[in-house]
Amino acid sequence: MPSTTFYRLEIAPLTILPLKRSPFFTYFSRQAIEAGSLVSIPFGKQQLRGIVSICQELPTRPAPWMKEVTAVITPHCITPGQLALAESISRLYFTSLGKTLAHFITDTTKLSLPTPRTAITPKPRLPAALKKSLSPLAVPGRHALSIAPQDRDSAIALLIAARKKSKRSIVIIVPEIIGAELLSSSLDRSGIDHRLLTSAETGKQYYSAWEYARDPRSIIIGTRQALFAPFSALGTIIMVDPIDDAYKQWDMSPRYDGRRIASLLAESSGADLISLAPFATIADMKAEAAGHLTHTDLVAALPIAPIETTNLRLERYRKNYSPLSETARTRIGQALGRQEKIVVIVNQSGYSKITLCEGCKNIFRCPECQAPLHPEKAGTYACSACTYHTPLFPSCPGCGHISFRQVGFGTERVEREIRKAFTYARISRIDRTALDTRAERSALVEHGLTEAADILIGVPSLLNHLSDPSISLVVFVDTDTFLTWSDFRTDERFLERVFRARLLAGGQGLVILETFQPESAFFRKIASETYGKILQTLTDDRSALAYPPFAELAAVEVIRDSRGLADSAAEKLGKAVKALPESEKWRIFIQQAPERRFRGQHIARVLIRVKGDAFPDQLEDWFRSLPKDTFVDRDPLSLHV
Question: pTM for the whole thing?
Answer without folding.
Answer: 0.90
